[in-house]
């Protein structure tokens, strides 16, 4: 497929520069958008006989570069902090929640069910069940939709969902031969057996197995896949750097304007209080151009500046049936409506989840791209985002791979990731989904929109999309 895309998709360019194509509109301030926006009068997506499920509140710890202020913590510490932040913000009674679900990717073996450990640490009742899910970068998306399923099925009325990732300390294993020897030593009954096993150890056995953000099925790192995808869709280095600069610039404006209201302050034990993301660093096109390719050398286009960075952080959301939320005196932020999960070839289409998921979720909801007021797409790499935009803008791709008569269409950039994204805010793998959904809810309120769309790619060639509807003000 890659060779076909290389020859065919060159004509589907998004343009030489986002800034050139969209001009100042792509950097419009929220104040300007509010002045222009009018409350929509579109139909609601409520259906007779179908329970309305709402997002009551969402919070997250500041997302920090791995190896910085959170470096001495453990994953459940961050998850516990997010849960405590949610409790503080909502004042929900600790025994009023029916279930807790957390997403994570790289598990700490000591706290493999991090949802349970964090819930107990946060002071939730020990009678509340909790489990942990993993689905790569859409793990907290899965946590949220699992919560929606429990409520829709009548099993629960109130569920806390969230996600956590802690890249400052990831498990590093001994080699398999060394692990087998150590397990055998543990079972050895005589001194002779122990000495024999110790004598079998060779220097090569001591080499550690280092973790990597790579596909097990293809052995290819995600950065390498992003570089190939960008090449296949003709995404230039200039376009990628331009998009990354846009993300950092918008995030900086949102942070300084106090728009990132889901971020809670967190007193790190033995350290300072942290109250904002620390990866937002607007640079310049000239400085970004000096960086060397990070994965495919020397001719790759993916660099440290146009990729999301290794991040520590946690998020949490309170999801309820609308009836329960109103009975408890809450004013919900948004309705959680239709959602889909998709999956495709993890070799050539690893990061195209948004392109596959977007038309499917719009069809389920009975909406078109033009009905969407707020778009929040996960930014794994600038090249990945741009490749998805080009795929969505291609009749050929729509006909060949999506079974459509024409293209999906491209989200307008004046509605797209206006408060920054994963490239600038950070991407704790398991926690990003909740950030996306909470951001959509907040943006809908600020901008006077009615419908928002979240979309994300994930390892394994999987993807997710969800439609969110603003709650009546």
From TrEMBL:
- Residue ranges of the TM segments: none
The molecular function GO annotations come to: acetyl-CoA C-acyltransferase activity; acetyl-CoA C-myristoyltransferase activity
Q: Say which domain of life the source belongs to.
A: Eukaryota
Query: What are its GO cellular component terms?
Result: endoplasmic reticulum; mitochondrial fatty acid beta-oxidation multienzyme complex; mitochondrial inner membrane; mitochondrial outer membrane
Q: What is the purpose of this protein?
A: Mitochondrial trifunctional enzyme catalyzes the last three of the four reactions of the mitochondrial beta-oxidation pathway. The mitochondrial beta-oxidation pathway is the major energy-producing process in tissues and is performed through four consecutive reactions breaking down fatty acids into acetyl-CoA. Among the enzymes involved in this pathway, the trifunctional enzyme exhibits specificity for long-chain fatty acids.
Q: How does it assemble?
A: Heterotetramer of 2 alpha/HADHA and 2 beta/HADHB subunits; forms the mitochondrial trifunctional enzyme. Also purified as higher order heterooligomers including a 4 alpha/HADHA and 4 beta/HADHB heterooligomer which physiological significance remains unclear. The mitochondrial trifunctional enzyme interacts with MTLN. Interacts with RSAD2/viperin.
* Annotated Thiolase N-terminal domain residues: 53-323
User: So, what pathway does this thing act in?
Assistant: Lipid metabolism; fatty acid beta-oxidation
The identity of this protein, by name, is Trifunctional enzyme subunit beta, mitochondrial
Tell me what organism the protein belongs to: Xyrichtys novacula (Pearly razorfish)
EC number(s) of the enzyme? 2.3.1.155, 2.3.1.16
Q: Name one Pfam family in it.
A: Thiolase_C
């Amino acid at each position: 497929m890659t060779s076909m895309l290389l020859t065919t998709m060159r004509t589907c360019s998004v343009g030489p520069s986002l800034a050139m194509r969209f001009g100042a509109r792509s950097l419009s301030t929220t104040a300007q958008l509010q002045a222009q926006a009018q409350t929509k009068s579109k139909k609601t997506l409520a259906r007779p006989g179908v329970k309305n499920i709402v997002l009551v509140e969402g919070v997250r710890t500041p997302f920090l570069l791995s190896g910085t202020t959170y470096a001495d913590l453990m994953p459940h510490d961050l998850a516990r902090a997010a849960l405590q932040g949610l409790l503080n913000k909502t004042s929900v009674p600790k025994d009023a929640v029916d279930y807790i679900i957390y997403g994570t990717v790289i598990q700490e073996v000591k706290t493999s069910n991090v949802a349970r450990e964090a819930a107990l640490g946060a002071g939730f009742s020990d009678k509340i069940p909790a489990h942990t899910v993993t689905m790569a970068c859409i793990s907290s998306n899965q946590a949220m939709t699992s919560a929606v399923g429990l409520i829709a099925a009548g099993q629960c009325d109130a569920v806390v969902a969230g996600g956590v990732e802690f890249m400052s300390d990831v498990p590093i294993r001994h080699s398999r031969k060394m692990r087998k020897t150590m397990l055998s030593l543990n079972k050895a009954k005589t001194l002779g057996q122990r000495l024999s096993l110790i004598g079998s150890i060779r220097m090569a056995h001591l080499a550690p197995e280092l973790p990597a953000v790579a596909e097990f099925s293809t052995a290819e790192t995600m950065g390498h896949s992003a570089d190939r995808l960008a090449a296949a869709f003709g995404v230039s280095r200039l376009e990628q750097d331009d998009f990354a600069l846009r993300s950092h610039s918008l995030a900086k404006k949102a942070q300084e304007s106090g728009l990132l209201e889901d971020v809670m302050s967190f007193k790190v034990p033995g350290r300072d209080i942290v109250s904002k993301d620390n990866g937002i660093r607007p640079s310049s096109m000239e400085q970004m151009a000096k960086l060397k390719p990070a994965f495919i050398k020397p001719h790759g286009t993916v660099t440290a500046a146009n990729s999301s960075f290794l991040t520590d952080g946690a998020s949490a959301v309170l999801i309820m049936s609308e009836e329960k939320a109103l009975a408890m005196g809450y004013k919900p932020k948004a309705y959680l409506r239709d959602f889909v999960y998709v999956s495709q070839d993890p070799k050539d289409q690893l990061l195209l989840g948004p392109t596959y998921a977007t038309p499917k979720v719009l069809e389920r909801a009975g909406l078109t791209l033009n009905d969407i007021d707020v778009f929040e797409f996960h930014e794994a790499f600038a090249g990945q985002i741009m490749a998805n935009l080009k795929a969505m803008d291609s009749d050929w791709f729509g006909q060949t791979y999506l079974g459509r008569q024409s293209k999906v269409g491209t989200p307008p950039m004046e509605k797209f990731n206006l408060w920054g994204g994963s490239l600038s805010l950070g991407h704790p793998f398991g926690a990003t989904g909740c950030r996306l959904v909470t951001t959509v809810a907040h943006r809908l309120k600020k901008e006077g929109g009615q419908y928002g769309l979240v979309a994300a790619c994930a390892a394994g060639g999987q993807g997710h999309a969800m439609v969110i509807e603003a709650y009546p003000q």
